[in-house]
Design brief:
- This protein is α/β, with parallel strands linked by helices.
- It folds into two domains: 165 residues, Rossmann fold (3-Layer(aba) Sandwich); 74 residues, no CATH class.
- Helix content is 33%, strand content 25%.
- The strands form two sheets. The protein has a six-stranded mixed β-sheet, with helices on both faces. A four-stranded antiparallel β-sheet has the order 2-1-4-5, covered by helices on one side.
Length: 250
């Protein structure tokens, strides 16, 4: 059994009396793919925002590699190697695919992003950028402006820029949201491909996406943990079935 890399205890978030996340205990094992799923309004993204400190919990603790990170800021979380993506694709639309990844790689300089640097200076990142672009299946789009990519390929580019930050743990927020069936298959295959040597926690609402992909699935409903286990266990859980079949507004 792998060691726990990320752990929460009693994680709770209230908004003026509304409890969005209610006492969540979560344990993610290093080197695994762990999904946080649930019907709409289950508290998945709120929980994700708590883990990456875009929201401060009302109560509870968060530990990463044994360290209490509950009081840290988002940038401090990222520097520890806990890197996230967002539901809305975040790329520089007027830069090429290569330039987008190259900007992310500039983090290795330890300073600000050098948009004004000469091409000669920035080309030092090209080989690594092309490797990452190949990893996410975008090699034929290297010189294409990011704004001209399909939605699914923009998400793949975002994963490449996230990987450029060399995360120890990758957090993917709804990576397949709004995609066509073909794009969903492409992103699922991509997640399998980039998992080597990393831990991945993904927020998802679709059980079919995590089938065969995730080692552990935690199901949330109304802000609380409803069930946890592998795909076979949670997909056959009658409480999970009821939550999905009757909870469009849950």
């Amino acid at each position: 059994m792998s060691d726990t890399i990320l752990e929460t205890a009693g994680l709770t978030k209230e908004f003026r009396g509304f409890v969005a996340v209610d006492g969540v205990d979560l344990r993610v094992r290093a080197g695994t793919i762990h999904a946080l799923i649930g019907p709409n309004g289950a508290g998945k993204t709120t929980c994700f925002n708590l883990l990456t400190k875009f929201l401060q919990p009302t109560r509870g603790t968060i530990r990463f590699k044994g360290r209490d990170i509950t009081g840290l800021k988002p940038a401090e979380i990222a520097r520890l190697g806990l890197i996230r993506s967002f539901q809305i694709s975040a790329v520089f639309a007027h830069l090429s695919v290569l330039e987008n990844v190259r900007v992310a790689l500039q983090r290795a300089r330890g300073g600000s992003f050098d948009f004004w640097r000469s091409d000669e200076v920035l080309h030092v990142y090209d080989d690594r950028a092309r490797e990452l672009i190949e990893d996410v299946g975008l090699s034929e789009y290297v010189e294409v402006q990011a704004g001209d990519l399909s939605y699914g390929r923009k998400r793949a580019l975002e994963i490449a820029t996230t990987l450029a930050l060399d995360p120890e743990m990758l957090l993917l927020d709804e990576p397949t949201a709004g995609m066509t069936h073909a794009d969903v298959e492409r992103i699922v295959a991509l997640i399998r491909r980039v998992r080597a040597g990393r831990t991945i926690l993904m927020v998802e609402h679709n059980l079919s996406v995590v089938e065969g992909l995730c080692d552990t699935i935690t199901v949330l409903t109304r802000g609380s943990v409803l069930a946890e286990g592998d795909y076979d266990a949670v997909s056959r859980n009658p409480d999970v079935v009821a939550a999905y079949l009757g909870s469009a507004d849950a």
